[in-house]
Amino acid sequence: MNHDAYDDNYIRSILNSVKSIAMVGASPVNVRPSYFAFKYLAQRGYDMVPVNPGHVGKQLLGKPFVASLSDIGRPVDMIDIFRSSSHIMPVVNEALTLSPLPKVIWMQLGARDDAAAEKAEAVGIKVVMNRCPKIEYGRLSSEISWMGVNSRTLSSKRAPIPTQGMRLSLNRMSVGGGATAASDRAAKNKGEPT
Amino acid sequence: MTDRLPGFSTLAVHAGAQPDPTTGARVTPIYQTTSFVFNDADHAASLFGLQAFGNIYTRIGNPTTAVLEERIAALEGGTAALAVASGHAAQVVVLQQLLMPGDEFIAARKLYGGSINQFTHAFKSFGWNVAWADPDDIGSFERAVTPRTKAIFIESIANPAGSITDIEAIAEVARKAGVPLIVDNTLATPYLIRPIDHGADIVVHSLTKFLGGHGNSLGGIIVDGGTFDWSKDNKYPMLNEPRPEYHGIRIQETFGNFAFAIACRVLGLRDLGPALSPFNAFMILTGIETLPLRMQKHCENAKAVAEFLAGHPAVAAVNYAGLASDRYNKLARKYAPKGAGAVFTFSLRGGYDAGVSLVSNLKLFSHLANVGDTRSLVIHPASTTHSQLDDDAKVRSGAGPDVVRLSIGIEDKEDLIADLERALSA
Fold first, then answer.
1. Which residues of chain A have a CB within 8 Å of the CB of B54?
2. Predicted confidence band at B249 (pLDDT cuts at 50, 70, 90)?
3. Cβ of A28 under 8 Å from any chain B Cβ?
């Protein structure tokens, strides 16, 4: 699995198939990226579970915080890790004790741990690293185009008008695989992301 | 299954646009509105807090303009773009994100005269200091780097003489200095040169020229290459520090590889205000659909006119990188193999007076201060676009007193040559 650039169809199949997402490191502070992503994914119809031991007893947009993955008490399809690269491995280790296993482990923009990814992939879990599911969902649905962002997709079909809680079609023609040539270059220049 | 990668002409027609969700209109509608209704209070708060994608107010973003932005980002191979009112506005917005008062940037000496003025005089009052370097001497860029240098600015095909810049060599200087390379790609357009492929981090355009292409609408754009790590060394507080105007959001951390375009929108355009009219965005979008066809014709005509002038006894010299004898021909073959553009200069044996006489005797070429129109244009830079420069700076920027600049249109080349032949012998 090449984790430097993902095929759009790989990301598309994940976002189309998962229904529940546990977000490790979800923040109740409304200017943190994890709050943005949590809120957006909930609005797009995903069943969101906030995981953060520092906020147990509180709620995030109506969903009660749990302290750890094992406290969720029900199966989740995807674990979205909002922690820096050095804190990934313990979360993945805990995820591997869940039964049933999650189908996907997703590490946020800037986060990457190849050893942890290898471990998860060895038991059949799909892994995405150094990406944001909000950005990828917005890109593949072209909703992000409102911000002048290059969605790297085309479509000659009329899109429905998005409403609260509505899942958007991600079935657009992909232009450039998982990343632009330029962002591949950036990833190379940057070396190991922190 | 991976979809095939569409070609440039397909992107020029389709990128960013799809049938209108409400009406099914196939052409991008002109959303001529200042503002957009919120679904509810939470939606409004989400949009203002940058948490949701959507429209608020046309000074910050507009659906017609967004199509233009995505299309140019796609054509340039960037991650995102921001359209503004003019090419000059694009330069102000870009540098506002990069420079604090007392900071410096390095710029190539060979630039559009308006940019030289903007950098020398207008930016001085912001405390942004320009250091000039010679694009024909890469070492002059290296020597101009100081600890306060925050960016390097060049033109891919440089105004007025159509000289070609060695983008990769200057990108290497920028990389070593840890600063972004900004390339003004106006005269090349992404059809001829894609600077991000050669190491540029940010591309700016005057859309007014070949991209719009019909001389009817002003516009400018900023393309984010997605290539620069703004968090390194904490040199760029606009991108990397918590922004008080957004309750502490850090732009780079939140928006990843299109953070620069977002900073330009939410910190630059929002607060400085040079928004593009949706009507202009529509006109420019329509122009871009035929960009590949027009650029082929512009380049073919320019080469024919340059060859004619090079053989004319009244002409002292022709500066067109598409001619095999030109000093920039090697760079043109590397960077712009499809054509060396359609803006170039030549000098007349009769000097200043012959130049003035030629301009007044032409009947098809229009004497005006623009380039990149379907119509062929002529100007005498020393007395117009570059008139505010001193004599030395005029010569250094390729706009000496004997120089005439042409922007070759898409008319029949035989008619353009006949007009020049008649005017030169008049």
1. 146
2. very high
3. no
Number of domains in chain B: 2
Asked if A182 reaches chain B (Cβ–Cβ under 8 Å), the answer is yes
At B400-409, the pLDDT tens digits run 888 999 999 9
How many domains does chain A fold into? 1
In this prediction the ipTM stands at: 0.89
Of A43, A148, A180, Cβ closest to residue B81: A148
Four-CA torsion B40, A165, A16, B70, nearest 10 degrees: -20
A121-159 per-position pLDDT tens digit: 999 999 999 999 999 999 999 889 989 999 999 999 987
Distance from CA of A160 to the nearest CA of B (A): 5
User: pLDDT at position A159, please?
Assistant: 78
Residues B189 and B266 in one domain: yes
CB half-sphere exposure, B68, CA atoms < 13 A: 33
| Claim to verify: residue B269 and residue B304 sit in the same structural domain | no
> Within a domain: residue A97?
yes
Angle ∠(B28,B90,B58) on CA atoms, nearest 5: 45
Q: How confident is the model at residue A182 (pLDDT cuts 50, 70, 90)?
A: low
How far off is chain B from A97, nearest CA to CA, in Å?
Answer: 31
Q: Which of A132, A156, A163 sits opposite B18 (nearest CB)?
A: A156
pLDDT exceeds cutoff 60 at B323: yes
Residue B35, strand partner residues: B57
The SS3 of residue A47 is strand
Nearest to A20 by CA among A101, A71, A69, A75: A75
The verdict on residue A194 lying in a domain is: no
Average pLDDT on B57-61 reads 96
- Chosen for mutation from A44, A150, A161, A168 (greatest number of chain B CBs closer than 10 Å) is A150
pLDDT of residue B1: 45
pLDDT, position B4? 74
In whole angstroms, give the CA distance from residue A27 to residue A67.
13
A132 and chain B in contact, CB less than 8 A: yes
